[in-house]
Amino acid sequence: MQADYDSIANAISIAVADDQHADRSDEVHPRAVVALQDQRPVEVQLLYPDLGISEPLAAVADRYGLDYEALAAAAQSALAAPDRVISLEVAARSAA
What we know:
Elements: E1 2-6, E2 11-15, E3 24-29, E4 32-37, E5 40-47, H1 54-64, H2 68-80, E6 85-87
Antiparallel strand pairs: 1-2, 1-6, 2-5, 3-4, 4-5
């Protein structure tokens, strides 16, 4: 997973699929847009993250069955290192 916070645009882009191109988008929340390829999410765009990331990312995770904690970790990492691409490896939860 890769994320990038564009400080000028005040937006975070989170790539959830490698080397995929979107054929349409879905506005899941007034501040969250999901780019889709064949109905599967390939990128999440979070607008105005300074207003909070929890609500829009929860809406995205709920609608598309994505890992909310992974999306939040990617967004927080991008915010911590603005204007640079952050790569994040998220493993599946281990069975307890």
